[in-house]
Amino acid sequence: MRAIQVNEYVKGPLDLQVTSLPTPAPAASEYLIEVHSAGTNFFDLLQIQGKYQHQPPFPWIGGAEFAGTVLAVPTSKSASQARFKIGDRVFGATQGAYATHILAPEHTLLPVPNGWSFEDAAGLFITASTSYGGLVHRANVRPGDWVLVHAAAGGVGLAAVQIAKAKGATVIATASTERKRQIARKFGADYAIDYRNKRWPEEVKNLCAKHRTGNGKAGVDIVYDPVGMIDVSLKCVAWNARLLVIGFAAGKVEKLALNRVLLKNVSIVGLHWGQYARFEKETVDTVWKGIFDLVAQGKFKGIAFKDENFVGLDSVPRALQALGGRETWGKVVVKVIDDEVKSKL
Ligand SMILES: NC(=O)c1ccc[n+]([C@@H]2O[C@H](COP(=O)([O-])OP(=O)(O)OC[C@H]3O[C@@H](n4cnc5c(N)ncnc54)[C@H](OP(=O)(O)O)[C@@H]3O)[C@@H](O)[C@H]2O)c1
């Protein structure tokens, strides 16, 4: 197989190289998958530099999210016990996605939805579940709610926009460029605001004052925050608002004066999606059932970045560079195999 193997920490993604390695043999409990597409994540960039909380022992293969076809099934299960069979299209996340082949235990895999490309499926595992878990499970989004989604054109942001809309909410999106705001609107946001303008909370308040009634005139009911903007967002929330702490893409962990939480009668709600598989397995199944229902109803679509094409493992360094440069929207996905070219041959 070919893979991006990391033998030592690198300064940046352009130092990564593709090498040839023996195709790994699956353990009795593992599937062998042929990777068609690999999703990129900011934590991949941290990991290759040795700055991530999870650093495997050297040598290791970079990347975590993928979609592909099953080449071999676990030998520890009978055919009726295994969830997937040879040839099934699956997506998932485990260490080593920047490769032509990957080994994965069953709990890290899900079926690619009907009609979905590998490219779109490779970006689904982390974004959709984080945003559904946050908005539906933690913040209890309801029809009629107003939801403010920060960095709405980012990976989890675009997923959040679609889920909030599907649940009957009105969405105000924030993003740093006109292209990103255009994308947020295309995926369903009702309003899109430039949050580089320091007066953006006023804009949110004005929209709510104009279009909402009762307590809603003061602001939104839910804030979805993957950036680190909870404190400033408290300026434009309604009574009983829920503010979701999703991440700190701006690079700084916020500190908050709790008197403002009391005075505004709001809830600050955290979400650590990756830990649900450990502490609350039943919710993982409920969340994915909810996502697959939205997909089947056509209310949740793939969010792969389309402004530039990343084809072949050799394009992983450039894909990671683009992701780190804040140049992209949605999910940056590398087509490890170009299925369109393959189908024409
Ligand atoms: N809690 C969880 O379980 C969970 C799960 C998944 C991800 N996350 C976290 O959620 C955050 C977003 O993840 P993602 O996959 O959506 O990432 P992403 O696709 O890279 O999007 C991040 C967005 O943040 C905005 N941003 C604001 N300040 C930035 C800065 N200084 N540098 C880079 N981007 C900046 C950018 O939008 P603008 O250019 O429009 O500002 C960018 O589109 C990350 O911190 C991630 O770790 C948390």
UniProtKB/TrEMBL annotation:
Residue intervals of the Enoyl reductase (ER) domain: 12-334
Listed GO MF terms: oxidoreductase activity; zinc ion binding
UniProt-listed InterPro entries: ADH-like_C, ADH-like_N, ER, GroES-like_sf, NAD(P)-bd_dom_sf, Quin_OxRdtase/zeta-crystal_CS, Zn-ADH-like_protein
SUPFAM superfamilies (UniProt xref): GroES-like, NAD(P)-binding Rossmann-fold domains
A GO cellular component annotation in the UniProt record: mitochondrion
Domain of life: Eukaryota
Protein name per the record: Enoyl reductase (ER) domain-containing protein
Organism, as annotated: Aspergillus coremiiformis
